[in-house]
Amino acid sequence: MVTGVLPVALEEATKALPVFLHSGKEYVCLMQLHRDVPEENVREILEEFTGEIFQKPPVRASVKRTVRKRMIYRISLLEIEDRKILFKVACQAGTYIRKLCADIGEALGCGAHMRELRRIRTGPFTEYEHNYTLQELQEAKRRLTEENDEQMLRIIVRPVEEAFKHIPKIYIRDSAVDAICHGAELAIPGIVRLETGIEPKEPVAIMTLKGEVVALGEAAMSTEKIVEADRGIAAKTRRVIMTPGTYPREWKSRR
Amino acid sequence: MSKQPSWEIEREVKVLAEVGTDSKYGKRPSERTISEHIKLGIVNLDKPPNPSSHQVVAWVKNILGVSHAGHGGTLEAKGAGETPWSQEYSQ
Description:
The structure holds 2 protein chains of 2 kinds. Chain A contains 7 helices and 14 strands.
């Protein structure tokens, strides 16, 4: 049984879905041990599985089955009842929790499997904030169509920009927006302001000065380098979200 | 590899230039009309245990009457707990 946070992007916002590829996740997991194990051993092993781990994706996986490094930001034990272990884990994107349970079981020497899983976070989206059921969505839509009341739907549907809350942002000039919409690289002169924590090859969100997301990019320089540089490419455009033509075209195509 | 999850990183803003934006183009996300808001919207759904992520997306499309939707990170009833994003097209 797997439940919890599932961001569903609508229409144009589906272009933002690749951002979830990079976003860390948080789960509450119920793990079943196959034999009795003293509580201290469980605590000790969970501690060992914090930090960088090596994981081979399970047989039924959507990626190539080669061992990869994954970061486990933290694991906290919530409850133990007989051979049932309830724990919370925050991990890097692409960590398989079913596999994590099997590997913990192996390390404990008793064997274990995942019994139930609830995702409580996908990047910026959590179960604590603006997390709604299908029934609530249906009610919001009913209020809009039957009562012409858009308030509930406005709250349940989040602006696409919220998907980028956790990644660093670069704000650009109006005159640079349309070129990015056509897939151009972002050059230093187009930048108005930026956030700290930008690292080469890591994702960045390219934003307008009105706070609209233009594209998901891949940084070519760190924040410090961008601040010092007066020319060069700061980021490559990876996925355009804004419709071209929203801002005026102030660039010329090279022939 | 960062030892800190990205959602816990606090960021400061560095200003490189003092320029404004022309109100003729684009608009603040909070100023979108309800139909624009939906077209550029994301629903943070609490997925129930039984239907697949795929089915949940189909329901959302149905409820909102949108032509196109997709989910980020499969949460399958029998899945491995984590797979990359997938998209569903209606046409």
